[in-house]
């Protein structure tokens, strides 16, 4: 039986998995598949000319199913620092929010991500998909994007599967150090605050932490009433002490809780430091160490990045469907009923470390990997909001001011064991066995977030003061504390055997793949409630207004103010979830008549999932257990078992290959989408609500591709694809009292189809002392989703493109290599077509994210064999993120130009 320590959440998550216990016994005897890790390493030799782009061509040619491979040399050439930015160079892939990958124009739910073939959890609060910017390029050996389904992969496959394959132990001693710095043109000035002074390792320094006294008070006073008001404290304490403690004592206890919360979050505007980074890799290999046969090796790496980003943002609500772009200005209300202008400064710390240990003897290869990836974001922002219909405008004399300070710690910890064995024992001779076990934990913590929402007063268009009075209501000082823990354990085994005949070669493979996942999400809100007669004079100048987050830093100010601290618990804002997958597959790979290859198989998956939302009534997990009955768990449970098939045929000649493929797959709703919990989606800005009645989407996937390989190393490919989707999961909008709510639901049907092309070709072999070549890819596609009439809600269009789908994605590179090997340069262009960010409601059109043209340049100089100096210029065109509705701008955000330099030395 699995050790209880693997489920670090609480007794509830253990009980959720025990609900599936009748299915669990057999699964514990198996381990995970990674037959793609059995692919032999491809090593490029010769000069740098086209080497970085062609090094993985042989691997792609040998794949039975349509796939694209990107090696570490290619990633180095484009200057990308993480997996997310590198993957946008792959055919048909586009990058969203600098984190998520859309494959063939489909949303992130249609792409799956694995690490060395294993499923790992996501530290992102709002998505089950892993944010790929958390993986630094320094640990990546290659990125394999498989676009046609094969039975050895998880059946949760939509647009494609991304397998991040990390570097293994070196062939010889390796010690490499790299330092870098960069400058962004939007980072001259930005906002900082007192709480962020000592967080250089990406961990809170304790200034924001949830006080233990407040946790204790919640257990004492809430008792299902969901508040810590004067009245409730007085009632509880009076019952405990057997006498009325009086109103004054209750007020004093409440104010002591307010004093325990972090309160010194005033902002300052100052110059921002340049970004800086340092990376180091050290590894070695030892033969016959301590007299033992075989080879031992290790590879250790550490990477640290300190980054700042400052951006101006704009968001608005259209006043009329007849709004015209030519009449609109972000400074008036001709087209807008409400606008918000925000300046946001983010300070990111990335600290990543990994250690690989390996032992190889004969046909046996064992690897142990530990990885810790930390990505912390510290944000300070100022937003000014106007809505004339509510007398909020400069002309009306008042606008709304909001200050946000938020510190979010994200961490992914992974322990992975892998083995590859070529057996040579009697009747087992020639049998290959691959196995892996992975235990990983993702945690996200917001130890303390404060949002201050008050008013600025204007006279004749000139700022006068910042104030708040109790009659305004709302949540003027709102605290949020968040904790997420996601634990995933998966294991499996793959066994294969090749049989040789006169005119054919047949490989038979099979195995099992098993996943156990638990998630515990908790969030808590507190706010200040002022009396109707209470008035606060917060600032007399705009410069002084920056300090409103520290207005209550002094205890005497709280004592002198008629303010009450409340626990603002929504109806359901926490949830517990568990998931189990037991999978088995069998496959065949037949090569016959020398030129033909037929591959395919069947996969069976038994999927079980439960997600329970609740309102935290106490901090003691044992108390929560009493509130969750077996019937509630059963109603919140999804149980599915199904067979998934795939088939691929390839015809090969020396100069070309023709491929055809089919696969049946599934896209399941993630845990967040199934939980009826409200949250703010950072991509759309909408209040979002999960749906416990979501159903899985089933897909039929068809692929065809022709690949050409020239004698001089040039290669080309042209492909086509079609996907038919039953019950696609779409985000549907409703509107009530001027507020939009985005909720997930199943549409009727959807389809997507397209063509894609890729090339690598030499342009000139002797120009400017070197050779020029070009590489790139282009995808053209279309899609349609149909919403049933009964699901219409406030939607404008029942038929439209799928959310997140772009009609085109293009990646172009012009590359130069000098003949003497000392210079290398690339100019890289990327663009995607407009895509629906959110569906339109109430006769407004859908909101489209506009194309973003990205032009980067990378130059590397190699003064010695061991030394590299690299210069990068990113976003040379300086285009910004923009969203339009009815052809009018409704959202925008600055995207900085970035200039960076790095120096590396390999000892």
From TrEMBL:
The keyword Signal applies. Keywords: Cell outer membrane, Membrane, Receptor, Signal, TonB box. Its main location: membrane. It is found in: Cell outer membrane. Residues 65-150 form the TonB-dependent receptor plug domain. It comes from the Bacteria. One of its GO terms (cellular component) is cell outer membrane. Residues 460-875 form the TonB-dependent receptor-like beta-barrel domain. Transmembrane segments: none annotated. The keyword Signal applies. InterPro entries: Beta-barrel_TonB (IPR000531), Beta-barrel_TonB_sf (IPR036942), Plug_dom (IPR012910), Plug_dom_sf (IPR037066). Residues 1-27 form the signal peptide. Pfam families: Plug, TonB_dep_Rec_b-barrel. PANTHER family: PLUG DOMAIN-CONTAINING PROTEIN, TONB-DEPENDENT RECEPTOR. Belongs to the TonB-dependent receptor family. This is TonB-dependent receptor plug domain-containing protein. It comes from Pseudoalteromonas arctica.
